[in-house]
Amino acid sequence: MRSSKTVFHGLVEEARICATCGSCRSVCPVYAEIGWESAAPRGKITLAKKIFVEGKENFLSEQYVKRVFQCTLCGSCAEVCPARIDTRELWQEMRQAITDRGKAPTVFNQIAKNIHNNKNISANTNDGRLDWADDLDDPECIEPSETNEVGYFVGCVASFYPMVSEIPLSFVNIMDINNVKVTVLGTEEWCCGFPLLAAGRNDEALSLVEHNVLKIGQLGIKTLVTTCPSCYHTFSHHYPKVIGKPLDFEVVHATQYLSYLIEQGKLDWSEYEELDEVVTYHDPCDLGRNSGIYDAPRNTLKNIPGVTFVEMEHNRENALCCGGGGNLQAVDPELTAAIAESRIEEALKTGATTLVSACQQCVQVLTEAARRKKARIQVMDINQLLWMGWE
Amino acid sequence: MLDQIKQDFGSRYTESYFERQFYTRDLAYIPNFLVSLVAKPLPDMVVRPVNAEEVSRIITFASENNIAVTPRAGGSTAVGSCVPTKGGIVVDLNGLQGVISFYPDDEKVRVLPATTWVELDSYLRQKGYCVCSYPSSINVATVGGWLSGRGYGMGSIRFGSLVEQVISLEVVLPSGVIKRLTRETDPPLQWFAGSEGTLGIITEVELKVRPIPETMGHYLVVGENSQAVLQAARECVGELSGIIHNMHFNSRLLNHALKRKGLTEDKLGDYHSLAIDLEGSPVSLARAKEFLRWVVDKYGLALMDPEVALEEWEIRFQSLRIMRVYPCLLGSELLIPVNSFHNYLQQVEALGRRAGVEMLTYGHIVSRDLTIVMTLYCSDERQTWRYLCDTSLMMEIYRVGRRLGGVPYLTGFWNTPYVKDIYSRKKLRELKRRKTLLDPGGIMNPGKVYGPPLLLQPNLYVLGMKTLGLLRRILPKGVQNHAQQ
Hints:
The complex is a heterodimer of chains A (about 400) and B (about 475).
Chain A (H helix, E strand, L loop, with lengths): L10 H7 L5 H5 L1 H6 L6 H13 L8 H8 L6 H5 L6 H14 L6 H12 L31 E4 L2 H5 L5 H12 L5 E2 L9 H5 L3 H17 L4 E4 L2 H15 L6 E4 H10 L13 E5 L13 H9 L3 E4 L17 H4 L1 H17 L4 E4 L2 H13 L5 E4 H7 L3
Parallel strand pairs in A: 1-2, 1-3, 3-4, 5-6, 5-7, 7-8
Helix pairs in contact in A: 1-4, 10-19, 12-13, 14-15, 17-18
Chain B lengths: L1 H8 L3 E2 L2 H4 L11 H7 L6 E3 L4 H13 L4 E4 L16 E4 L6 E5 L4 E4 L5 H9 L3 E3 L11 H6 L7 H4 L6 E7 L5 E4 L19 E11 L3 E9 L2 H15 L3 E7 L1 H9 L11 E9 L1 H17 L3 E2 L2 H9 L14 E9 L3 H15 L4 E6 L4 E9 L5 H7 L1 H12 L3 E2 L10 H4 L2 H14 L19 H17 L11
Parallel strand pairs in B: 2-4, 3-4
Antiparallel strand pairs in B: 1-2, 5-6, 6-10, 7-10, 8-9, 8-10, 11-13, 11-14, 12-13, 12-16, 15-17, 15-18, 16-17
Helix pairs in contact in B: 8-10, 12-14, 13-17
């Protein structure tokens, strides 16, 4: 996992450590599309030295702010940094510093407003948190009961955006058909805080963190499962820092939980209808590079009857980003689209019939890219693929 | 014609100050006021061509209008090779990236010049092949860029410098003509090796590759006596050159500094170390291991645990982690005879003791005779005068190296004061003849390689450096960057 190799001692110190060698530039999906040095990580740090180390605030131009927020927080730059700078932390702290100066893109104001008012990123009230569950065969299966040991944190996108509501439906159906009890927080599930952290509004995320930790504790949840890699990363990496102690519950991503259930023989394959799919896997940045989870999704895929698994050229820690991370889609949707199309092109080269990811944002962005390119490949979440054989 | 170029290149052309400012430097930090005394690093425009024809159009335009052209790809040197000295046009070549074709039967590949070595090697490895040699800056250095330098790095002991692996080149000459070069053409491809972009722009490289080696073995020799370690290195190069992939020396001071920050194995911190990475058949590696044991015994050295040796191999591209110990480093990169390495180390560390800084040295042995040596020391760029005065030690390091037969590894712009040391009079005359022949207007990467500008003439340069050296002794001591230990 990258975080074991990289270090972070604050924006000023790390900006000074950067030798501007440019290793980061070669792997940056944003630079690959924009092509100017200003879009490369080393370019952004070059000016960060002037602004935040030397105090030359006149370099904090609108163009520079735009470049700083044109970033998916994919962590590729941290992966190759020979000075071991945790650049993902660096970008977030830079965003915070820019936000503190009142110069962040205004688009984030609406996201922050939604989260503040609705406790989720959408324009809908949190009362609709469980609307997706109306389509469950047994909606009551996720109600709190006496055994709430396993909790499912659905995440804002999967809860409120119908395009990806199949993901929580599939996950819960898989659990239900295999007699694994999971509980959701319902309207007490608030945004995990990641969109605020990525927007450089760390302070505003505090109340969300405290609320979620409290409610999870009240339900007696021992294991919290997420299908969203960003929720997973925020819970496992940021929450302990924010509350100042380890969490009282374990956090796992759905791919880890599925892999665990498979290894324990707890999935019942007797009624499973074998698939006939050639599948390639897109590592979500927050699950792969930023959290170090590569094997669990692959173990799961390789155990699905009828799946032939093939890798893309860039995989695991070298996987290309889908373009949808770090709030980039809100700041520069065209850039997100261009990055996603590059990933679709790579997936097509494998000859796969299905491109699977383990993230609702990757699935949404890549689905749209495949549609635009009229690519003959279906895009879905790993839970959707797995559920197909039981459906 | 400029209007036509602007129109054709569209978003790949810029005159924006915001974009241009990023092309005014490479790895080296030199205060702007000092640079502006000797050069004009801010380009007037930057263009990003995507093929040789577009490169040709830009160069033709520049040639007809006598505008300086500075080619740039990885931008990872520290001597100003890709930084303009006369404004003009920066040709950002990163749009010329990727493998054109691979010929496994002939063990060769045709590749665009801005392809990074890591991309090329990754591409080949998926097909069971790999590059013969590569730079330690593999993640950013490009095929064309490395060829334009000296092209020594990992794999060079066995395969020589990069030019020895090159079969043909496509270049755009300063006239705008696109030409394919081999060893037999006029000019031959060898002219472009080490020319640092001053003769034209490389737009395609055809080079030899090889099957992935059957086996690799990683060894780490350590000792308290640098002479013994380096004698062992020479003995190994003599005996094992056919199977040595990489041989890397770290001084004890460097290992100790890394240890202080937990950036290397604790056990390494008290020793000089020599990483030896071998490749070949299992039988040849088994024999080599026996030989290594014999050498280690002979010189009273020790072999570290295999896990430690493997870890050193895996972090071989992370020399810059030393920046975590000292966030601001100055230094000199020299090519010195292997036989002189020990004396160099002794003398440069003595220089450091006199100057009150740790001299941190590492070296890549790249042939039976030559080592690329990097010596670094800490400074503080936040204290401008202190930083400037500290640069005087770079000349002192160089003088130590020169006494022992060393020369700067690259010339670029900042090492032009040493050009008469780097090349013999005859060689320099020949290089200038080639330059005049191919680039009579002097538009290609002006200010590099052939000689210094007025203020960097050797006498003035030495005087300036010596003055800074004297000032350094009377200025208050700089903030020591290792305060964060």
